[in-house]
Every structure is written in structure tokens, then in C-alpha cells.
Design brief:
Elements: H1 19-23, E1 33-36, E2 42-44, H2 52-60, E3 64-67, E4 75-77, E5 82-84
Antiparallel strand pairs: 1-2, 1-3, 3-4, 4-5
């Protein structure tokens, strides 16, 4: 069962893309996005080069995430490495549809597939 203190259904996502990738100079890029269910932090997935969603869990202990991709509503628990149940989170529930995957536009190298983690 999901721990209530690990979910905050009222907090909005931190933005439309990975916080750390967007703040980097030059900007980083991501494959897919994940949203922290406790604080709304948007980070990049484990397949992405920088794996910022996992780093956020390690830094904060916030172990429940939800996919921030269109048409995906699953939750994941980093502590158990299993899918988890979760309550609906505040909108928006995914990144803008015009945002490419991988993203963000202009930061993804042409040979991006070779940088993905398995």
C-alpha cells in the first residue's frame, strides 16, 4: 500500500521538463519524464543519460514517482522496484503534447539512442 506521506495529490508539477536537464549549461536532454508524487519534481527516467528522477529519490527519500508521459498513469516505487498504487495527482498529468520525445527540442543529439541506459 502507498504511504500517505509519500503522496501529495494537491501539488502541481515543477514544470514541463526535467528540472536538472533544463538548468544545465548546455541543457541536457531526456528520453521520458517522471514526476515525484511527494513534491512534484519532474526528472528524467532511468533510460535517460542523467537519470535525474532516481537521483531525486536518493537525495530526498521521495520514493514514489508517476509517469509524466501522455496516456500513462502508472506509479513506481524506487524502494521496492515495483509498480505501486497511487491517487490522482494535480494537473497537468503529463508534459505538453507539442514537446518531443526525446526532449527538449534542440537539445537532443542526432545519435541519442546510443546514450540510453538499458
Amino acid at each position: 500500500m502507498t504511504e500517505t506521506r509519500q503522496l501529495n495529490p494537491d501539488i502541481a508539477p515543477s514544470g514541463t521538463g526535467c528540472v536538472e536537464c533544463l538548468a544545465a549549461n548546455p541543457p541536457g536532454w531526456w528520453f521520458h519524464l517522471r514526476r515525484c508524487a511527494a513534491c512534484g519534481h519532474i526528472g528524467c527516467c532511468d533510460s535517460s543519460p542523467s537519470q535525474h528522477a532516481r537521483a531525486h529519490w536518493k537525495d530526498t527519500g521521495h520514493h514514489y514517482i508517476q509517469s509524466y508521459e501522455p496516456d500513462e498513469d502508472w506509479f513506481w516505487n524506487f524502494e521496492t522496484n515495483k509498480y505501486a498504487a497511487g491517487a490522482p495527482l494535480a494537473p497537468p498529468v503529463d508534459h505538453p503534447p507539442e514537446q518531443p520525445v526525446p526532449g527538449p527540442a534542440g537539445a537532443v543529439p542526432a545519435d541519442w539512442v546510443q546514450y540510453l541506459h538499458p
